[in-house]
Amino acid sequence: MTAPVLNRVIPGPGPACKSNFTMFFYLAPSLTNPPEPTDKTVVITSLPEQKVFTRYFGGFAREADYVENAEVLGKALIRDSRDFDASFFYTAGYDSPFKILFRHNEVWYVAKTDAGEI
């Protein structure tokens, strides 16, 4: 299993609207020629280098846990006048489903490129 497994979450515009999820799996940079996907919905892409604001939490994370932690992080960034892209966030899971204790989960907001040094 690769780690972290990322999900980009674009929240739906209202309480009854579904969010958009895109899952990313890490491929080592040394893997210069990965196999071509056989499923048309799977693509190989690279994320740009970016700075992210992160909030960590433990346990077996559910969608509601990620949303709650993203809201806490977003409010803290606004309070501290941090410049970030609030239109989406990432979830990051680092553990195998078989790991029971000391699980590591994160939510990320991407810093805007003109935010300067953090």
Automatic annotation (TrEMBL):
It comes from the Eukaryota. Pfam families: SOUL. GO terms for molecular function: heme binding. Transmembrane segments: none annotated. PANTHER family: HEME-BINDING PROTEIN 2, HEME-BINDING PROTEIN-RELATED. Belongs to the HEBP family. This is Heme-binding protein 2-like.
